[in-house]
Amino acid sequence: MKYVLVFVVLALAFWMWRKNRSPGAAPHDERVSGGTQMHRSNAPPQLMVTCAHCGLHLPQAEAVTGQRAVYCSLAHRQKEEA
Ligand SMILES: [Zn+2]
């Protein structure tokens, strides 16, 4: 029982030590434009739009703009605006 108490105190101290360390160093302030995404990214904060036909969320750069709304593809634009 005594060892359990010691372990808990040590764990608590370690947790507080880690908590005090983290706020200074932000995890990822740089490297916003990582190369892992498959689509081309003109601007890192991508504005997401919703296809008016199927409801798909996609970056505005890849959306097809119609007369009344935006769509995920030319086919969905033609179906909606035909
Ligand atoms: Zn669609």
Nearest-integer average pLDDT: 81
What would you call the shape? Answer: rod-shaped
Structural class given helices, strands, pairing?
A: alpha+beta
State the separation between the terminal residues, measured CA to CA: 76 Å
Summarize the biggest pleated sheet: 2 strands, antiparallel
- The percentage of residues in β strands lies in 5-15%
Which ligands appear in the coordinates?
A: zinc ion
Number of helices: 2
Uncertain parts: none
SSE arrangement, N to C: HEEEEH
How many beta strands in the DSSP annotation?
A: 4
Global Rg: 24 Å
The proportion of residues forming helix, as a percent range, comes to 25-40%
**How are the strands of the biggest sheet laid out side by side?**
1-2
Key descriptive features of the protein:
about 80 residues; alpha+beta; 2 helices; binds zinc ion
